[in-house]
Design brief:
α4 links the parallel β5 and β6. It is built from seven helices and eight strands. It has one domain: 3-Layer(aba) Sandwich (Rossmann fold), CATH 3.40.50. The protein is an alpha/beta fold and about 280 residues long. It has an eight-stranded parallel beta sheet with strand order 1-4-3-2-5-6-7-8, with helices on both faces.
């Protein structure tokens, strides 16, 4: 089943990207730490988002995820989880539209009866020289990379109880932007640092944690690990390679799990030494 909340805005690109081509170690999921939990991943049909959806489902969570235009990939992901005995729901929702975001949260709760985990992964990357950067691209960057995070968190918090977990997917570019033209993107990811700290004070007394995960270059269709751009970034990383989407997903899985209840308001970098 696919839920289509109302949305008046035009579809836009999100941060979901293709799965990394490198194989990842098989994970022992005999102990499902997230059994009985319900998670919503905003921007979850491809790339980092899809890897998070798969990892949380593998750890026993019921998963809902949003997408904008990747209908085939969203349906494929949903079906792969349900055919394996899990529960999943693909929700078409534009992260630039406040109504669509709120509808996605409420559709998740209506379908599964609760909400324990929110992962804000939707994002856009616009790069252009300062003199050529379009104001509409600037506004879209803020709407998706920052405003959607606040709206989803505000709505999700209404349904969460003690033990709730919220993860924002930021970027190491909040701390290091090594090339020209990326100022607005860096600014939007820096905004998540402050937003996460502030919201930790609102949510902490209720037993809900919120953290900001800051990946470095990860092999996705937004930023593939091959090509001229990748070749310019790899020398900046201590480990000399791009990250894999599964590596980000495993970090998120730990932070939303039962052992991470004392971590909140933190911006945690996973970048292969990009910022070292």
């Amino acid at each position: 089943m696919t839920v289509y909340p109302r949305s008046s805005a035009k579809p836009i690109l999100d941060s979901d990207n293709k799965a990394a081509r490198l194989e990842f170690l098989e994970i022992d999921m005999t102990t499902q730490h997230l059994s009985g939990k319900v998670a919503l991943i905003q921007g979850g049909s491809r790339g980092i988002g899809a890897a998070i959806v798969k990892r949380l489902a593998a750890e026993g969570a019921t998963v809902a995820f949003t997408y904008v235009s990747s209908t085939a990939k969203a349906e494929e992901l949903q079906n792969s989880i349900t055919s394996a005995g899990g529960k999943a729901l693909a929700i078409k929702a534009d992260s630039a539209d406040a109504v669509a975001i709120r509808n996605a949260v409420n559709a998740t709760v209506e379908a599964f009866g609760r909400l324990d985990i929110l992962v804000n992964n939707a994002g856009v990357l616009a790069i252009a020289p300062l003199e050529d950067f379009k104001l509409e691209d600037f506004d879209q960057t803020l709407a998706i990379n920052v405003r959607s995070v606040f709206i989803a968190t505000q709505e999700a918090a209404k349904h969460m109880t003690e033990g709730g977990r919220i993860i924002n997917i930021g970027s190491t570019n909040a701390e290091r932007m090594p090339f020209a033209g990326g100022g607005p993107y860096a600014m939007s990811k820096s905004a998540l640092v402050g937003l996460t700290k502030g919201l930790a004070r609102d949510l902490g007394p209720r037993g809900i944690t919120i953290n900001n995960v800051q990946p470095g270059p990860v092999d996705t269709d937004m930023n593939p690990a091959s090509g001229d751009f990748a070749e310019s970034l790899i020398p900046l990383m201590a480990v000399g390679r791009y990250g894999k989407v599964e590596e980000i997903a495993s970090f998120v899985a730990y932070l939303v799990g039962p052992e991470a209840g004392y971590i909140t308001g933190a911006s945690l970098t996973i970048d292969g030494g990009f910022g070292a």
